[in-house]
Amino acid sequence: MSSRFSRSLIVVGKELRDLTRNPGLMATMLVPALLLTALAVLALYAAGLAAAGAQGAPPKGLVLPALLEGATRAEAAQFVAISPFFLIWLVFPVSVPSALAAYSIVGEKEEGTLEPLLATPIGTGELLLGKAIAAGLPGLVLTWASWLVTLLAGLGLGAGRVMQATLMSPAWLVGMAGLAPALTFLTVMVLVNVSSRVNDVRSATQIGGLLVLPIIGLFVSQISRGLLLGVPTVLWATGGVLLAGLVAMALAVRLFQRETILVRWKQSR
Predict the structure, then answer these.
(1) Percentages helix, strand, coil for the chain, rounded to the nearest 5?
(2) Which of 17, 33, 77, 223 is deepest in the core (most CB within 10 A)?
(3) Measured between alpha carbons, how far is 181 from 129 in angstroms, rounded to an integer?
(4) Integer Cα distance of 50 and 33 in angstroms
């Protein structure tokens, strides 16, 4: 088992080296991550600044967590401003690896490196797992970095109680550590399935994007109803999404026919 996983890690290393040689793909990940971080910090700062001079308690009807009992208007404003980023930070690592996963197999075809790769003794499951990890890891790392920088900025702005009720709350931590990787894994495996069945990157990206939309739409609808704010619900969602990802991976291994892909690709050239 360890030797099989080590072969997957070799694929991960190769994919990440290829990524560093593609500045276009790097920019599609780094620029949105920087903008997301700046937007989150700015939202905290602007909300606190706008409400700093206001007197009295927070507006009636505003539901705040127990940790913010007796909150000032500034704290309430910061809580409202940062709360939507729970959804954004979960969707971000789903959208970022789309181009990488779609490119994973088709890119090998277009560059003529698929034939020697499939000729190696690495198993299909090991190959697809390695490509999935390489496609999903950059988006996850950038998401966690954005979350951490925002947390430090919030503490620096004196919003310690707001951070405890949001970014440092158990539900948010479970979401960042469990649900975000599970969503990323499911998305990547769906896109790897698509990438192995088409012959150009544009088609893989377009079809993959359409397949990801229902996942994001369903998740947005759940968040909007407030169903993912509790730890048990987040854990159940993580388990369900992870199971779906494993099913997608098993399907990818079953459908990934090396000889068929090579023959079809050679005939299309």
Answers:
(1) 80, 0, 20
(2) 77
(3) 14
(4) 26
